[in-house]
Amino acid sequence: MHHKLEDQELAPWFEALRKQPVTRSAERTKAGKERYLNFAKSLPAPVSSRSKNRLKGWNLFPIPMLTRKEFQPMASLIATILVIASLVIGGGGVTVAAAQFSLPDQPLYGIKLASENARLALAQGEPLQQAELSFQFTLRRLSEIQAMLQRGQMPAEALLQRAQQQLDLALQQAANLPPEQAN
Asked: What does pLDDT average to in each consecutive run of 10 residues of the chain (183 residues)?
């Protein structure tokens, strides 16, 4: 019943639209077509001129359903998940563990930071755990700074800023905790 009321209110508008001419001038049609074709010509050439060659590549999943073009994004997602899982279960876990002792000037330091960010993301919705992790990571940054100073190296500005940001985040998270958890 509510729709009929809306239809009655909109009926004059629809009627006015129906009375409008739908014709388009031949000049505007031709100009639009030319603009479209010129734009299409300006695009880079396809990867290959023959469609069969375009679809060649590694077929990680020889399942007919997953080789169809519309299922390619799903197949790519599945492949990514499998690679990540194998890295975490296999050698990737060892790499992440080894990265935990790296310093900012070492190759595995980026993995260390990425694993810390992942741990914080997994603690989303757990304010106490997030605050504890933030304090733990702040202490790591401070020990990294201390280790670099002991080796006679000046810590990079980015490391000092990261330590300050993590301390600020930890204090902010602790301030938002209930009093019994804040200690």
From this structure: 63 76 78 85 67 52 53 64 67 66 80 83 83 88 88 87 87 82 68
CA–CA gap between residue 177 and residue 129 (Å, rounded) = 11
Q: Which of 103, 111, 169, 109 is nearest to 138 (CA)?
A: 169
> What is d(CA 175, CA 163) in angstroms, rounded to the nearest whole number?
18
SS3 content of the chain, % helix, strand, coil (to 5): 75, 0, 25
* Separation CA 56–CA 48 (nearest Å): 10
DSSP 66-114: HHSGGGHHHHHHHHHHHHHHHHHHTHHHHHHHHHTT--TTSTTHHHHHH
